[in-house]
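Researcher: Let's try something more involved. This one mixes different molecule types, so please make sure each is placed in the same coordinate frame as the others.
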Amino acid sequence: MDLTRRGFLKFTAAAGTAGLATASKNARASAHKRSVNPEWLGVLVDTTVCIGCRKCEWACRDFNKLPNEPIENFEDKSVFESMRRPDANTYTVVNQYENPDNPEKPYHVKVQCMHCNDAACVSACIVGAFTKDERTGAVVYDAWKCIGCRYCMAACPFQVPAYEYENALTPQVRKCTFCFENLNKYRKQPACVQICPVETMIFGKRSELIKIAHDRIRKYPDRYVDHVYGEHELGGTSWLYLSGKPMWEMDMKEFDEKPIPAYTETIQHSLFKNFIPPLALFMGLGSLMWIFKRQETLESSEGKGGEA
Amino acid sequence: MSPVRYRLAERLDRKFLTPGVKVLIAIFGIGMAFGLYRFFFGLGALTNLNDQYPLGLWIGVDVASGVALAGGGFTTAALIHIFYRGRYEVIGRPAHLTAMLGYTFVSIGLIFDLGRWYNIWHPAIPSMWNFNSALFEVGACVMLYLSVLYIEFIPVVAERFIGKAPKVIDGILRFLDKIIDKVMWFFLILGVVLSCLHQSSLGTLMVIAPHKIHPLWYTQILPLLFLLSAIAVGFPMVIFESIIASKGLGRKLEMDVLTPLARMISPLLGVYFLIKIIDLTIRESWGYVLEGSLQSNMFLIEFGLGVVLPLLMLASEKVRRTPKWLFTASALYIFFGVLLNRVNVFFIAYQPQYSLKQYIPSLGEFMVTIGLISALILLYRAFVTIFPILPAHGKKA
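Model: All components are placed in one shared frame. Result:
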């Protein structure tokens, strides 16, 4: 091995210049903040309105070409006996919860991808297969890029993405698409919203939906808890919920406002800030190597016999 | 690899197909039969992974533990080539080989786990780079480091085949050997830097699941803990392997090197121990230790048996000098302190809110993992037979 001082200095100088160049180029980084576009679309779900007819489940399957059954079969209420979750062939499910004020009229919570403003899956994906669509705010998945590591599933705080474990060749991560085809081309509401017979859901700009939600709470303070779930949770989500009792009493988790990517990206970006820490480590180790080698050479030239 | 021109290492002069090797080949064959099944019938057919538990045994053991335990490569390289401790040169090649094969098997193990394994090269395409992803950083560093490890192996190949290979190959080897000699310092440092980066980022991975990871393990300093434990496990791994290789291959024990090496473990392990204690104290998480759950029991095993016990044992010079005890202490930290820690972080501590179905690794998952480990040992055995890796005894040339 031949570590010459000249070689090392040359490399260090070149690397340092490169580091400074990138440093000046992107001086931002660090503090985690992702902008929220007021034009992004969303859906406001009123869990006090929903009657649990599950037509949205049928429409979702129909639009997304998932295995489906005749629409009458969805009138079966026995499914409400246990909590259901979306899976690889089911992008949305409705669960039923007790209404303490009126046992005759239980609450229903429709579950699907929340389309987070600052989504964990988008941040986590090794190949960027998940993206937050700039125009619509939908979180979309590109199966072509996906390597199938399922890290997105571990990352998602809502535990929404599901996997086609039974597909041997081309398994996909599956979740609500926000009916992206419709949304993107026509800015049209998703299939579930369209079919709902009781207008449980309102489709529109997320920023406006938040206003509508707070208006409703103001108008009917007895009907709702004063909280729009998804407004601030984990940095906000495109799907928002109004409810008669806290959402965390209906199997949705109570979250603070810190977006999931803020946990990892701050670590990640400070470790790699303008590539300086790795370069510093390289140079530090290089200097040590040089010092220790020099010491060794001096010692062996004093006649101590070199290597042990 | 070394500036010294006397013979550092020698080839293992032994028949390859011993009964032990045959058993390993059989285990490997069975493991691969299970593994193939997965490629034809899907992950669901072989594994118990489900939508709530997407990461399992293969990620916890084959990948995360594999990376940590292959860390003997970079710690030894740093010791020998950066801190210039020449006396340890004899363990350099075995440690390097373990890292090289270890990382190779991490990649192979990953192929079994990836749903779209044929896209494994995607992280190398610039248009798909996601700099926000800790996983991308791990992937990129592991890919680079694996290349560095193979480059660092060139001198061994050169030493073995120069003068013994056909003219063309001989020429190429001589040429490569000459270049490598000039730039080896660069790759040696690069290897250590890349290792520090991905060993820590491997810990960042689960930081993304703050609401799912049990508080005994969930901390913002997981990357630091992963790095420190990987640094500390390097020498125990070298010791563990060296003693197994010596016993198994009927060679002299290298206690004259292993004992001084063992003296360096305590401070490294001590730092990890301290940071872990401080972290648990600051996060006020000690209360969880005795909650009696699977998680708290696993933590007790991991920390008590895997960290505290070996730390106490290695404080004694008698332990460090006695092969049996040194081996035990090293093995305790390797298996309970590090391997179990990675398993804990990646799926024991992983407690999703909705868990319709618990995850317990299937027989098939275990068989594939055991098969891969057998293949790793087989390849190690083949490499030390083909190449001069193991320490030469009194054969200076």
